[in-house]
Amino acid sequence: MKYTDIIWDFNGTLLDDVRAGIDAVNDMLHRRGLATIDSVEQYREMFCFPIIEYYAKLGFDFEKEDYYAVLAPEWVALYLENYKHSTLTPGAEQTLQALAALGYTQTLLSATELQMLKGQLRDLGLEHYFCEVWGLDNIHAGGKIGAAKAWRAAHPDAKALFVGDSVHDWEVASAVGAECVLFCGGHQSKQTLSVCGCPLIDRLEQLAELLA
């Protein structure tokens, strides 16, 4: 086996929560009289990390409202309401099962606040697939390179493959000397992801095919 560990992203990769994210931010934009996001395609072109830069693109005025104290908590509350209608990405659980059967150690590493992340995993019944779950100690979604470096320090000899749906996932993998595969059905467009130069998949089941 070329890899010992598969490091999964959560939002947009295993969890199909794109619509929940759009609906939450559109509610915020509407309340402020700002232009809303018209389509999934528009959203995928605008979305980026850190999330504060995405908010700036959307027109939020940080001089009027603080991102950390006002906007991020508001989004989380709205997202948690909308997320209840989200489902697993097609093929997600089958792929987790297939990789477990192949003997890979699977870890979840997300820019979501850790307790919120664990709650979502419990809701979805996925906890048992992961040896470890890494999240953030805040709701600001600034990025997860720090968490990845902490994971790497704990597993210096692991041969890891990161699986995500954003340019940031590729940046995270690169920061810890790992390879990356990106899923094109999440929060960023295939065109955006193509600049990373790593393998792209349109279905999660393709990952098991690649690693079998």
Keywords:
single chain, 212 residues, alpha/beta, Rossmann fold, two-stranded antiparallel ribbon, 10 helices, 16% strand, globular
Structure overview:
The chain is α/β, with parallel strands linked by helices. It folds into 2 domains: 5-16 and 88-211, HAD superfamily/HAD-like (Rossmann fold, 3-Layer(aba) Sandwich); 18-85. Helices cover 45% and strands 16% of the residues. It is built from 10 helices and 8 strands. It has a 6-stranded parallel beta sheet, sandwiched between helices. The chain is globular, with a radius of gyration of 17 Å. The mean pLDDT is 95.
Number of helices: 10
What is the CA-CA span between the terminal residues? 9 Å
CATH superfamily of the largest domain: HAD superfamily/HAD-like
Strand order of the largest sheet: 5-4-1-6-7-8
Number of strands: 8
Note the topology.
Layout: E1 5-8, E2 15-16, H1 18-31, H2 40-46, H3 51-58, H4 67-82, E3 87-88, H5 92-101, E4 105-113, H6 114-124, E5 132-136, H7 145-154, E6 160-164, H8 167-175, E7 179-183, H9 190-193, E8 200-201, H10 205-211
Parallel strand pairs: 1-4, 1-6, 4-5, 6-7, 7-8
Antiparallel strand pairs: 2-3
Helix pairs in contact: 1-4, 5-10
Write a compact overview of the structure shown:
The protein is an alpha/beta fold and 212 residues long. The chain is 45% helix and 16% strand.
